[in-house]
Amino acid sequence: MRKMSWAFLRDLLSGVNKYSTGIGRIWVAVVFLFRLLVYLAAAENIWKHEHDEFECNIKQPGCENVCFDHFFPVSHIRLWALQLIMVSTPSLLVVFHVAYRENREKRHNQKLYKNTRKTDGGLLCTYLISLILKTGLEIFFLVLFYKLYNGFKIPRLVKCDIKPCPNTVDCYISKPTEKMIFLYFLVATSCLCIILNLSELSYLLFKYSIKCYLKRHMKNKQGSKAIAVNQNSS
Amino acid sequence: MDWGALHTILGGVNKHSTSIGKIWLTVLFIFRIMILVVAAEKVWGDEQDDFVCNTLQPGCRNVCYDHFFPISHIRLWALQLIFVSTPALLVAMHVAYRRHEKKRQFRKGDQKCEFKDIEEIRKQRFRIEGSLWWTYTSSIFFRLVFEAVFMYAFYFMYDGFRMPRLMKCNAWPCPNTVDCFVSRPTEKTVFTIFMIAVSSICILLNVAELCYLLTKFFLRRSKRAGNSKQHPNHENKEETKQNEMNELISDSCQNTVIGFSSS
């Protein structure tokens, strides 16, 4: 059932692929291979029994529960899943816009756009907005991870003294090294995606500003030519 | 729980919805069903096993758990999602009935029928007007009612949306007032607030869609009344243009890639 839900996200991403630039397609591949697949194949299993395997050096009932809740307000794996879902969602804006264009053309039975799928005009704006949103969400989740867990380290031992624990109690986290490795992996792929998004953003802005500049330059040239011809004839 | 079947059913309805309806469906699938299945179910997975009470008395833990969690959050959400998705079935049934009628007309060889073959009837998209408008509007109304009822039930059963760490229990056979500790209370509170927030967004979307449909209805009515007064037999070009514009506004995003099947 969970695999089916992620299949939904995978379909969404592959649909987005059609309307992306080259860098956008690399982004989809990175998200799909290095993030989604790694999450499903490896990360989920590491965090599976985190609560059961969290042990405190005390027999007081309730102390383990309370300490676990204090040190893991939201589990890493849930944040990871939320991040994957949120980061894939802005691409829907582009999909909606393209569908709107195709629908309009069908309704009017005439060609309103040179190419419904090419990023120009309004679609370019939507695409840029989706890139900005994606980058923003990635940075938001990285900052959230950092703030919640005081960095990206997972200690082997944490000391806990919350009621009903009678004194300061030693609590041991399960598989801390493995979790840390995968956490660093998550951060690295996030950063890679941020870099890809930013470079795609700057590439598109650069490309279209050059286009605009050239268009204006050609118009000026044609204008001055026309004036020169008029002067000669008179 | 087979959410895939729900996905298939609602996908068919998607074609005949307004654009707000399509956004609602996207929010439902991505931010509610997907989050429920992928994340929330695991957070609540060990809720009974890790519900710990400070007593050795057998049966006390079971009784206390049952007292504080008559219906688990996860099950309530699943019920809410099913109930909220069900009114769309009314629309699906109405559309199927209309298609069936058109197919019958076609087979009879009725001259009024404008379709060339059965495939065209199957692929046709019906506009939201006439009796379909009433079905569609009542389905949105029921959706709103179900959302509100479930949100209230949640609030009433759990005294708000916060999950406490510690609960004091003195139900029989617990000998005295006993401290019981819930597993992962903070994570559960976070997800509860998230689901409530998305529920509220869905309610707002439904209200907006309802207002839009009512506005469209009254506009159409007043235009028709105005036309019948001035030009009883004149075909109003402006009205057809307005209708087209309304359709453009309402019928965007037809072929989203979410995989909704076009039936």
UniProtKB/TrEMBL annotation, chain A:
Residues 45-78 form the Connexin N-terminal domain. GO terms for cellular component: connexin complex. It holds the Pfam family Connexin. Residues 137-204 form the Connexin cysteine-rich domain. Its main location: other. The keyword Transmembrane helix applies. The chain crosses the membrane at residues 21-42, 80-100, 121-146, 181-206. It is found in: Cell junction, Gap junction; Cell membrane. It is a multi-pass membrane protein. GO terms for molecular function: gap junction channel activity. Keywords: Cell junction, Cell membrane, Gap junction, Membrane, Transmembrane, Transmembrane helix. SMART domains: CNX (SM00037), Connexin_CCC (SM01089). GO terms for biological process: cell-cell signaling. A connexon is composed of a hexamer of connexins. One gap junction consists of a cluster of closely packed pairs of transmembrane channels, the connexons, through which materials of low MW diffuse from one cell to a neighboring cell. Belongs to the connexin family. This is Gap junction protein. It comes from Taeniopygia guttata (Zebra finch). The lineage of its organism: Eukaryota, Metazoa, Chordata, Craniata, Vertebrata.
UniProtKB/TrEMBL annotation, chain B:
The chain crosses the membrane at residues 23-40, 77-97, 132-158, 191-214. The keyword Nucleotide-binding does not apply. Pfam families: Connexin. It is found in: Cell junction, Gap junction; Cell membrane. GO terms for cellular component: connexin complex. One gap junction consists of a cluster of closely packed pairs of transmembrane channels, the connexons, through which materials of low MW diffuse from one cell to a neighboring cell. A connexon is composed of a hexamer of connexins. This is Gap junction protein.
